[in-house]
Amino acid sequence: MNKFKLFPLALAAIAFSACTSEEVAENNPTTGEGTTSYVAVNINSVGTSGSRADGDYVDGLANENKIKAVRFYFFTANGDAYKMTNGQSYVEKNDVTGTGKNDPNVEKITDAMLVIEGATKTAPHSMIAIVNPATIEQGVLQAMMTKAEVEAAVAEQNFKEQGDAAKSFVMSSSVYADAGKKVWVADIAGHVATDQATAVSNPVDIYVERVAAKLTSTATGADGNGKYLVGETTNGKNVYAVIKGWGLAKETTDANLIKKIDATWTDTGLGFTQWNHPAYFRCYWETSRSNMGPGKSYNAYTSQIGDVYYTNPNTSANNKPQYVATVELQYEDGTKAEICKYKGVEYLSEEAVKKAILAENKDYKKHTTTAAGTEITGLTVNDIHFVATGYQVKAQLNNGVTVYKGEVDATAECNNNMGKSLAEIRKEGKAYYYTDVTHLGTAKGIVRNHYYQIEVNSIKGFGTPVYDPDSEFVPVVPEDTQTYLAARINVLSWKIVKQTVDLGK
């Protein structure tokens, strides 16, 4: 089930002055530059006006709403950078403060005042806002930027830290479609005044949204001890899964600073209803960047149930985001369930698998020279080890172990034979489950300023084996294994996407 609910950003009403006069300033006759004039700006979170039939917007956390600075870029009518006397096309206000006001559930900051001195007598035509720009790595934002350059900007970072420590969330002007055209800049024509009071009475509205997306995970289907009954062994012992960590297997390494959309998109084409909502000054889909980070190991999934996780947008068709839950399999008494499989047969320990492999290779012998002569013995479990190959492992002789067939060195032959058949070993009960992150409707992906609440409803099967917890993997389901995770994803906006998953196949 997918349910729309919407989270607001902080709304900051920022009054600032802008030199937009088309007259020669009487107080500056020597330069011919424009007079100082004023424009008031309300920076609004998208979707905070009105309500939806299927849910209301809800406040974000204080760290998610914190505004440390706002950078305003100005443009000419043809999209060029609007030049100011200081050689910049932007003005930035730091340490924005003010009083909160519910309107409803919307914070408004009203005490910021910026003074802009234009290099010409022509007023700027339009503007955008970027909140918390210092978070973005150096070189992305320039002193002078055209509309096209701002729209093409790509940032590796749009927040700092993770979880409860996350801060400095970058917000940029909201992008949506209206009358078949893409909208993302604010027209400031008609909002210029020669005094502050007049400007405040006629503000410009700018709508912003966070570049990051937010995720949480809950173990809704677990028992009171956080355990899921996932199956039973062939000898009738119940096996439980305890989630040890969770996260995303596939994450984009960067994000478009300004959301990329296609105004010709349709609900049918995207797979969900109302992809675009101009009355809320926003849309619910985007084209993300496709640069993907590396795979992760079992030990890299460190987020705990109830933790908050932030990430970049990812709507890539070929690398859909995947939710991964790492688990420890346990028996009813809490001991680790080391469920293994070799040639379709279930074994309950790594040692048992080794013994099965050695039984198939009993013709290979060790020759040990003693005072009494050459002692010929079979291999033991201490003579072999497993090498991980994906989620499976292959047996190999330990370094220094030499085996013979008769009197012929057969070490290479033995390694080759043992490596032909792979085993599954859930070392100390370690395994994982995964599922695609569902957006809305049939769409798969993660969109900025959306909150994905992943509720793990059930887990079945023994999951994908993990032998080496430090080995990176791309999530797969073992062949011929009935394993699955059932999750419900609720998408809020912040905007919530809630997913309940049944983990496994």
Please outline what is shown here.
This protein has 505 residues and is mostly beta strands. It is 8% helix and 35% strand. The chain folds into three domains: 5-211, Immunoglobulin-like, CATH 2.60.40; 214-254 and 289-331 and 430-481, Immunoglobulin-like (Sandwich); 340-425, no CATH class.
Verbal overview:
The chain has 505 residues and is mainly beta. The chain has three domains: 207 residues, Immunoglobulin-like (Sandwich); 136 residues, Immunoglobulin-like (Sandwich); 86 residues, no CATH class. The chain is 8% helix and 35% strand. It contains six helices and 36 strands. The strands form eleven sheets. Strands 2, 3, 4, 5, 6, 8, 11 and 12 form an eight-stranded mixed beta sheet that branches. Strands 1, 13, 20, 32, 35 and 36 form a six-stranded mixed beta sheet that branches. The longest helix is centred in the C-terminal third of the chain and has 11 residues. The chain is elongated. The protein starts with a strand and ends with a strand. The N terminus is likely disordered.
